[in-house]
Every structure is written in C-alpha cells, then in structure tokens.
Amino acid sequence: MQKINKFRAHPWHGVTIGPKAPDIVQVYIELVPEDGIKYELDKSSGILKVDRPQRFSSYAPAPYGMIPQTYCGQETAKLMEKEAKENRQISPDQKIIGDDDPLDILVLTEKIVPHGDIMMTAKPIGGLALLDRGEADDKIISVLEDDSVYSEIDDISELPWGILQRIQHYFLSYKKAPDTEDPVCRILTTYGREHARQVIEKSKLDYQNKFQSTIE
Asked: Selecting from 3.30.2170.10, 3.90.1640.10, 3.90.80.10, 3.30.70.1350, what CATH number does the domain 25-175+185-211 have?
C-alpha cells in the first residue's frame, strides 16, 4: 500500500530544484500579474503570506517566485561583484553581499495563471543582475516548459525588446515610491542563458553551505 504523506512539503526546503537543473528548474510561484497584493513565502512555515498591498501601479509582468533549494549568499554575491568590477559598474572597493533569500525567478508564458502557491517547471533563458541596496538580488528570467509561444526561446537575446523593457521597468520601480528621487534598485547588467546557469549553480552552492547540516 502506498504511504500517504499527511504533511505538505516546504516549498523552499522540501522540494528539489529538479534533476535537469540548471537547464530546467522547478519554480514555486508566489505572485501572478493579477495580484493586487504582494504575496511572499513565509520562510519558517512554508506558507504563502501577505507581504504588502500593492500601493502603486507596478504589477508583476509574469508569474514570479523562487527556485527551491537555492540561496543568495556569499558565492552568488561574489559572482555579481566580480562581473560588476570587471565592467566598472561599481568601485573597486565596493562590496556586494547576498540578500539571504532564495533565488528569484520570473516565468514567461502565454497562458493566464490565476493564482500563486503552485509549482511550475521552467527553462532559464537569462536574468538581471539587480543590486538592491548593496545586496545581490538576481532575477532569473525563464520560460514555461512546453509553452506554445515562449518555449522556443532559448536565450534572453531572443525576447522582443518590449517584453524585456517591461520586465526591467517592473524591477526598477516595484519598490520605488513616486516621491523618492534615489532608485532603490539598480540593474547592473542583463545577462543570457549561460550566465544564468552560473548564477543558479552558485545559489545551489550557497544553499548547501547554509542549510546542508540543518535540513533533514
């Protein structure tokens, strides 16, 4: 007889990133474009919670969430810092730290996803090196596996410019109030599929370093 699990797996720790990572990853969706409230995974309980009402007109351009068993720590931050210094986007003495969260991911699809708190399988095609108050906060851009429109896209360079511009605008504005001058977030660069793979691998390593001894 099949054993029945009475308890739901924790979306961050109890679900795997997937056997084909970093080419194909599992994604836990927290937020969809129609949400007027920003939801976020409660990291202790694994329950989706209300983070805050959306005060301004900046809504997610696609289903948005996190990649299980990833963590933006020292290795992920070092990768962003190295690239930023090589491209002279930050000063030689500036340090970047991780934001201590799972790796964020946006999933492009032509389908309407009515709500979050679901799992998806997606193909990373690139990402944004987002610096949020000195913290590495990479945003992986992906496409829903087997999507009838987006699944043929393999790299962010193949996206229509208007879609990429919409994504960039969202992440630059979703934390910024209308009466503030200084930007909260800064996109250092937009990168393609191969660099996205590196970011995912570094976040997997950060997760292992942070949690391997504590997760059963």
From this structure: 3.90.80.10
